[in-house]
C-alpha cells in the first residue's frame, strides 16, 4: 500500500493508539460474531485477524502482543455482552462498526476507545 503525499503514514503498529484501536476493532468484530452467530472467536483467531489488518499497511506485531490484544478485546466484548440487553448490544456493535470509519465520531465510540486505552494500560 502506498501513501499519497497528502496522506500521512499510519502510526507504528506498537504505538499506544494503534494498539488501543486494534482492541476496539477486535471487540467490535467479536461482538458482531457473537450477536450474529452466537460464537466467540478464539484468542488465536483474534491474533490472526490483527496480523491481517496490520499486514494491509505493511506493519506487524509479534505474536505475543497480538495474542494479548486479542485477549483484552475478548474481555471487553464479553463484559459488554454480559452487561447489555441484546438490543443495546446490537446498538453498541453498530456504533463500533461505524466508528471504524475515521470520519465517524460519537460519544459512545469515544468512551469505548477510552476503555480500550484503560485496558491496554492495565494489561501492560
Q: In angstroms, what separates the terminal alpha carbons?
A: 30 Å
In total, how many beta strands? 0
- Label the structural class: mainly alpha
Summarize model confidence as the mean pLDDT: 92
Quaternary state of this entry equals single chain
Estimate the helix proportion, in percent: over 70%
Helix tally equals: 5
Rough shape?
Answer: globular
Characterize the biggest β-sheet: none
Q: Can you write the helix and strand succession as a string?
A: HHHHH
Catalogue the unreliable spans. Answer: none
- Tell me the radius of gyration: 14 Å
Number of domains: 1
Query: β content, as a range?
Result: under 5%
List the SSEs and their pairings.
Layout lengths: L15 H22 L5 H13 L7 H21 L2 H14 L7 H17 L1
Amino acid at each position: 500500500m502506498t501513501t499519497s503525499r497528502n496522506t500521512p503514514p499510519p502510526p507504528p503498529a506498537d504505538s499506544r493508539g494503534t494498539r488501543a484501536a486494534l482492541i476496539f476493532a477486535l471487540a467490535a468484530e467479536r461482538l458482531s460474531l457473537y450477536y450474529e452467530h452466537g460464537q466467540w472467536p478464539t484468542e488465536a483467531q483474534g491474533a490472526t485477524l490483527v496480523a491481517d489488518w496490520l499486514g494491509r499497511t505493511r506493519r506487524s506485531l509479534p505474536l505475543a502482543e497480538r495474542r494479548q490484544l486479542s485477549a483484552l478485546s475478548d474481555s471487553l466484548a464479553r463484559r459488554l455482552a454480559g452487561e447489555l440487553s441484546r438490543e443495546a448490544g446490537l446498538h453498541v456493535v453498530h456504533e463500533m462498526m461505524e466508528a471504524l470509519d475515521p470520519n465517524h465520531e460519537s460519544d459512545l465510540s469515544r468512551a469505548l476507545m477510552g476503555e480500550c486505552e484503560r485496558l491496554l494500560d492495565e494489561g501492560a
